[in-house]
Amino acid sequence: MGKQKRRAGESPRPRTAEEFGDALLAAASETAREVRGAAKTHANRLAPDLELPAEAADGARRAGRQLISRACRSGWLPEDFDQAARRRVDEFAQSFVLDTLVAYVEQPDRLDEVGAVRWWTESEPHLTQWAAKHILTPAEALTSVIEALGFLMTLPALTSPGAATPAHHAVDEKKLSRVRALLAKAESSSFPEEAEALSAKAQELMTRHALDRVLVEAGEAGPDVPASRRIWLETPYVDAKSLLVHVVAKANRCRAVFDARWDFVTVVGDEDDLDAVVLLTTSLLVQATRAMIADPAGRDRAFRKSFLVSYATRIGERLDQAAEATIAESPDADRLLPVLASHELKVNAAFTTLFPQVVGKSVTVRSHEGWHAGRSAADRAHLHDTRSWGGGGGGGGVFWV
Hints:
The structure is a single chain. The protein starts with 16 loop residues before the first helix and ends with a strand. The chain has helices at 17-32, 38-46, 54-73, 78-88, 91-104, 108-113, 126-133, 138-153, 173-188, 192-218, 238-251, 271-294, 301-329, 333-354, 368-380, and strands spanning 227-232, 255-259, 264-269, 359-362, 397-400. The chain is mainly alpha-helical.
């Protein structure tokens, strides 16, 4: 009584942790191939009773560790796991992915960024405690585990920001903290004049730091190998938002490429320049979204996408003009120009090495009203780092992989 008969052609239930791990991986493979109902079907077969076998818990741990380790070797960082899981699986599968990451990765600082902690005890298997925490039956728990494993199987190899060892320059943390505080206050201010003054001050600090650094670099010996960083974009209109990252990256001597499959942009450049790209992009996205939503005409998707594309294009033009003015006004312009040209060559070489095959794509605009509204909003935007000293911005296209 209570025992279930095995149907013809059905695989026998696994008995060891290794067999359970293999069974979970096989089920996950079907889920990754989007076989309808595969996760639930296999979970019901593997956990037909009201208790999770210890072998199933150990098998889940083994399978999860195997796939997490493979993804980490392929360039995936804790933030990437968190961002991708939020987009592809439900909260239970996402939770299992992060717990598996905690058990594998020994980088507490990176894990803190995504709120992943070791909350379970060693007194009993993680899967048992995890199922109880989320109030899941054994079959429901294994369904989420299989979905999480299937998700991990779909992760492609990434270019790792840690693949190269950049010559990281000492950052003035006091100055950077001051810049961040100014930007935060500017974005929260409801008074345009105050926001403009705060933004101008932040811009001045970042520009001064950038120019000082590039002149110091000119006298340093040894290669300066660029680094890379991924910037994840929130839906909708990620292609239009990626264009904004692209123009900001170009204005800060960086190169950017958009991965439309996973909604992130990889930016290649000097570490300090990457910090500037992240700070400025974040601020401009906040301002663009606020202006887009506030526009009374901006109710449909065509308007909003056109708004963002136009906004990014105009921001690129402004950044380009500001960069040229900053270099021209510098008392050391003659020294700056050859150093900037040399750095551009290094960034381009690193970018080509990481992304030997990229495709330039344009972003379609279908609303004239949205285009003009976006351009007007970009003219009003506070460019916290408009006097950045790199290459040009602008354009209605972006590199894709």
